[in-house]
């Protein structure tokens, strides 16, 4: 068996046995729904319904109900899309990249982070869909044989690359997540007493029985999926950034975009994981599994990616001046001193300054500070996309066509609505799914569990 | 008539030690049921490394071939277009623009193909019945399955050998 240094902080606190791990995770699923959960899901469903109403209003009326105009043809829709895709980067990063690096702390957070990823990508996918205006023609984005003189999609276009990247990312993340869930559904199935839930979990668990050969295949599958999902994670947000970088709009036309977007995505994804998990660990009493060390590890990722984002902002500023291109320089002068300067400085404060606070160990290891900063980071990351998109568009090459973007109630309603749908999905997940990867946690109990490590010292 | 022994252990290491001991005596262990992968059990009970990874490579190559040939067909052969002053003349010239989709589609095929193969080979599909001998094997118990018909040892000797290990519970079934 693998041993771990006794100095290293334990990953599972207290005197846990294999049975305790099952009880702690499956217990809340078998019991009645807690009151807090009921209240939260009611609120989030109301917001979700409002969002769905706004979407239906948009589809039935037309894109004109958004605040878009001739100059700013892309605003909150694409901002929200990039924001949600970015958030959706943490889950697969945690489960794939950290698996390849053999980081055992990922096992406590990967299941819920992946669920968050899947729901965030669903929310992201809403926006390109609805911003087509005529969503019933959405099949045009796929290369289907047709009667319009063989009108094929343009494979040279980053927008089409995006279609492939997002759908691949979504479906691969989904199967990766589900393959890990199968053995845990089997655990629930074997403990469930009520006949109907037992039957449902039985179907969901695909008849998993935990045979040695199946586990052998399971581990190989996880490793290979992690191996191919790792470049996938990096490719997806690189391709999203190319939607902008391959255009000739000043402020977008920069080669720094792919790494800058990928680190921004990881940055905001980890922040969202923190926001959700800090609440979840309290509500479901998972404090022994997701504790301060896990939070600290994630905060370290936030410092690293936040600093990369900060360097990227400064590089962009420097290059816009150093290039000597007046349009490029103006785009950036306009960003920090133009009509959207508030958004720019919000972005700078939230994304560059606030994560640097995590250099202090007290802040890095504080639940309250982490919770607040994680929300600040997500606000900052939303503004980053808003700044990149709207400030680059609203003053183009012809001053006569300069304009401004003002969001309408429908813009706001749809964005808030996606937050509601996302929370509703996530809350349902925490209620009916095993929120920790049971089978994986049990493999590290003896090497990283507190009581086992203390025995080693004796 | 054959006897099926389901030997239950309450710890993965106890099962591993017992399996080594029994295999050392020339006993064949048919199956091990566990709530999580027991590292090191595969060579002991004679399970070879899975070839699943090879299939994933083959699926990826299939995806690569399909995507590149499809893009060649639509963009260069069937209906070449001059988009934004960037005409589509030959596959070689257009290849850089085809890299992202070739990659994505290869990953898509590799991942899904491999998962489908995995589920089919395991026989774990929606609605399949569970076959673990005891519901506790998905929780905290580890079961080793030994049958008399796959062992030449006489049943009494086999039972004694099994009982000498650090077992938690033993259930014996007789099947005609």
Structure description:
The complex is a heterodimer of chains A (458) and B (176). Chain A has one domain: Formate dehydrogenase/DMSO reductase fold. In chain A, 71% of the residues lie in helices and 0% in strands. Chain A starts with 17 loop residues before the first helix and ends with a helix. Chain A is mainly alpha-helical and 458 residues long. The mean pLDDT of chain A is 89. Chain A contains 17 helices and no strands. Chain B contains 5 helices and 6 strands; from the N terminus they run E-H-E-H-H-E-E-H-E-H-E. In chain B, strand 3 and strand 4 form a beta hairpin. The relative contact order of chain B is 0.28. Chain B starts with a strand and ends with a strand. Chain B folds into 2 domains: 91 residues, Alpha-Beta Plaits; 71 residues. In chain B, helix 3 runs antiparallel to helix 4. In chain B, the strands form 2 sheets. Chain B has a 4-stranded antiparallel β-sheet with strand order 2-5-1-6. Chain B has a two-stranded antiparallel sheet with strand order 3-4. In chain B, 49% of the residues lie in helices and 16% in strands. The mean pLDDT of chain B is 87. Chain B has 176 residues and is α+β, with helices and mostly antiparallel strands. The interface between A and B is large, with 70 and 65 residues.
